[in-house]
Write a structure and sequence with these properties.
Strand 2, helix 3 and strand 3 form a beta-alpha-beta unit. The chain contains seven helices and six strands, in the order E-H-H-E-H-E-H-E-H-E-E-H-H. Strands 3-2-1-4-5-6 form a six-stranded parallel β-sheet, sandwiched between helices. By secondary structure, it is α/β, with parallel strands linked by helices.
Length: 168
């Protein structure tokens, strides 16, 4: 049993628009989990070059907080919940039907548990309810069937162009 914290790039343009930086999110969760027996697995973004993030990860000295470089899908599939600022990994976690806690704004937050970072308490995390599962399934179905462009299908592009008003 563990919580999964996938880190974003520190200079990700989506992350810049969030209330909290990647560095702050990382430090805050290390602090939160230092006060509990719950386990936290952190995965650094594969393209991250930040020396501050590297230093923070190398200085973790807690038995219940570990850094792994495994597949995100392996990590998501085995975790209790996913903790993201607004990462694309949060959206992918919905396909695994995991509780996703978002601490920043995202286009999928409507089916996540959006709370203040200061209000997060690992011991209060519960599995998804049947209602939450149904909402996630409905949301992901609509996104995949209404908004995703199939790159090998011209009609998919035309549908998207019409949706955004580029074609009538």
């Amino acid at each position: 049993k563990y919580f999964f914290l996938p880190l974003q790039l520190a200079d990700d343009t989506v992350n810049i628009a969030c209330e909290h930086s990647t560095q702050y999110i990382l430090e805050k969760f290390i602090n939160i989990f230092s006060q509990t027996n719950e386990n936290l697995v952190i995965k650094r973004h594969p393209k991250c070059k930040s020396l501050k993030i590297k230093k923070a990860l190398n200085n973790i000295d807690l038995k219940n907080v570990i850094v792994l470089d495994s597949s995100i899908h392996d990590l998501i599939s085995k975790c209790s919940a996913v903790l993201v600022n607004n990462s694309g990994v949060g959206f992918e976690s919905l396909f695994h039907l995991k509780p996703v806690y978002t601490f920043g704004r995202s286009d999928y937050q409507i089916v996540c548990r959006n709370i203040s970072l200061n209000d997060f308490n690992p011991s209060k995390v519960k599995p998804l309810t049947e209602d939450e599962i149904n909402k996630i399934k409905f949301f992901t179905f609509n996104v995949l069937n209404g908004y995703v462009i199939k790159t090998n299908d011209k009609s998919s592009y035309l549908k998207a162009f019409k949706r955004v008003g580029l074609l009538s």
